[in-house]
Structure to design on (134 residues):
């Protein structure tokens, strides 16, 4: 799972690299607790507090993107192309919606209102196919 890519703008540490390594798959969406469980085997001295601090730092520098589920859980993913999410409110399964289906409308509305957008996000909540059949 190691990709050992340098972290731009901050000092690279083994713990930070281990955290980034769990996000090597662009489809993975993880909570801090899930990251902790995945990193702990290779970094046995890491604390949950260290995970939270590094997730915050990696989000601030743009290496990771954070989004919040309906229940308030924060999930993180590797920063990639702009997209949104389908989120199951029962099991938490999260799928990417490629691109932005509202891009044209958002840009038009911001231009009309002379508003400079830095970023936007949205999640669509419902039930995945597995939870619908239960």
């Amino acid at each position: 799972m190691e990709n050992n890519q340098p972290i731009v703008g901050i000092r690279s540490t083994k713990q930070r690299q281990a955290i980034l390594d769990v996000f090597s798959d662009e489809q993975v969406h993880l909570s801090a607790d899930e990251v902790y469980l995945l990193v702990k085997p290779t970094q046995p001295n890491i604390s949950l507090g260290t995970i939270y601090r590094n997730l915050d730092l990696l989000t601030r520098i743009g290496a990771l993107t954070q989004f919040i589920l309906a229940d308030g859980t924060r999930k993180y993913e590797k920063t990639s192309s702009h997209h949104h999410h389908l989120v199951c409110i029962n099991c938490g399964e999260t799928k990417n919606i490629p691109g932005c289906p509202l891009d044209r409308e958002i840009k038009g509305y911001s231009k009309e209102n002379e508003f400079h957008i830095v970023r936007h996000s949205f999640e669509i909540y419902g039930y995945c196919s597995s939870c619908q059949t239960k």
User: Anything to note?
Assistant: The mean pLDDT is 85.
